[in-house]
Task: structure prediction
Amino acid sequence: MQRLSMQNAGASGLFNRWRNVASVVLTVALLAPTASVAQEKLSPQERHGRALAARMCSRCHAIGRSGSSPHVPAPPFRALENRVDLDTFAVRLRGGLVSGHPDMPMFRFTRDDAKALTAYLRSIQGP
Result:
């Protein structure tokens, strides 16, 4: 009788593991379309700007609509319009963006890249 209980316990443990795996897979499957829908809403120029932000800025800044910046003093991009004038930001990017703190490296962008990054920044600004 005890042997049967051990088999049932093993089967129950295996069932729980599979249930947990299935739960994770289902969660990922449900969230993946949300991420792609958000990407689909971006114009090609905004997608290019997001790619630039991911490659050049995400080490320090939160570059999406949510999340904290990995480098605490770096402002999240979704609130950047509270700190800079986005109407003139593309010009600053082209001339060589310099910040007031030594942590921030200097960046210089091409005209198209500056417009793309600025377009992306506009697309994620908070309410």
About this structure: Residues 2-40 form the longest helix (39 residues). Confidence is low (pLDDT under 50) at residues 21-37. Helices lie at 2-40, 44-56, 86-95, 111-124. The radius of gyration is 23 Å.
